Amino acid sequence: MPTEPYDFHRCKLCGQLAAAPRYQLKGTCIHVCAACDFHFIDHLDTLPDDEPEQETRTLDVTAWNFIEGRLKQNRRQLGERLTLAGRHRSLAGAECLDIGAGVGLFSHLLQEAGAIAYGIEPQQIFRQFAREKFGLTLTPETIDAPYWQDGFAGHFDLVTLWDTLEHLNFPVETLRDALRVLKPGGLLLLDTPSRDSFFYKTSEWSYRLSKGANPRFLNSLYSARPFRHKQIFTVRQLTELIENLGLETIEMNRSGLLDPSNKIVLVAKKTERCPGSA
Ligand SMILES: [Zn+2]
């Protein structure tokens, strides 16, 4: 983590000092890069490790029931993602890491499929749920930590980031760190909302026409609250990033063109062009 405040004029995708505020939302502002058109908000999370007082939420009955209520829907979607992973690689005995593991549901499904599952989750309340519900021990150390970078370099057959890329402080750096723990030929799977959605575009038009009074979906697509959406990629930006990192795209799908989140689902393979492969 940077020790100085981040300069949001620096684009989080291309690194150029070319980003400027464009859409002022409730409590945050979307910056747009003039060089690569990346959209990201002027907010970074402080991880709980840095600020223990953030760890005040407890897993009481209300929180437990709320999480349980969402598991059913998540189980359907993550079940589809498991099928996708299984189409590209036998999961039995596979060493897998789920980054942004949440309450551990995907790690649990991987274990049921015979894989050896590891999960990273910075939020204590989710780790506690994973332990009590699934008997899983998720790790709070983020992927940039020496725990992973030194201890698991070139280790994993599969690294997954489900609904995670849009939440990260620095998505490019996190993907680079994720690549280092993948085996050569290992697979990276992720999904993330797409900015190419009809809802996003109409929200931008609405913002401009109303001079900022009506940003429609933009307020629900971004938030400065902890662990919420900080950036949304277009398909082109994501596929170019994957290629620039030296990965080979094996499969790319888009779910629900009329769904506000309009997700990009991507499977990519680590090649000899990736950092740490030489
Ligand atoms: Zn840029």
Which terms would index this structure?
10 strands, 4-stranded antiparallel sheet, 23% strand, Rossmann fold, 278 residues, 6-stranded mixed sheet, binds zinc ion
Report on the architecture of this protein.
The chain is of the alpha/beta class and 278 residues long. It has a domain at 61-194 and 233-270: 3-Layer(aba) Sandwich (Rossmann fold), CATH 3.40.50.150. It is 31% helix and 23% strand. The protein has helices at 61-88, 105-112, 124-134, 146-149, 171-180, 198-209, 218-221, 235-244; strands at 19-25, 28-33, 39-41, 95-99, 116-120, 156-162, 182-193, 231-232, 247-254, 263-270. Strand 1 and strand 2 form a beta hairpin. The model has no long low-confidence stretch (mean pLDDT 92). Bound molecules: zinc ion. Zinc ion binds next to loops.
CATH class of the domain at 61-194 and 233-270: Alpha Beta
Low-confidence stretches: none
- Amount of helix: 25-40%
Secondary-structure element series: EEEHEHEHHEHEHHEHEE
Task: Catalogue the ligands.
Answer: zinc ion
Structural class: alpha/beta
Name the average pLDDT.
Answer: 92
Estimated share of beta-strand residues: 15-25%
CATH topology of the domain at 61-194 and 233-270: Rossmann fold
CATH superfamily of the domain at 61-194 and 233-270: Vaccinia Virus protein VP39
CATH architecture call of the domain at 61-194 and 233-270: 3-Layer(aba) Sandwich
Span of the ends, CA to CA: 27 Å
Major sheet description? 6 strands, mixed
Shape: globular
- Rg from C-alpha positions? 19 Å
Identify the strand order in the major beta sheet: 5-4-6-7-10-9
Q: Count every beta strand, where a strand is a DSSP E run of 2 or more residues.
A: 10
> DSSP helix count?
8
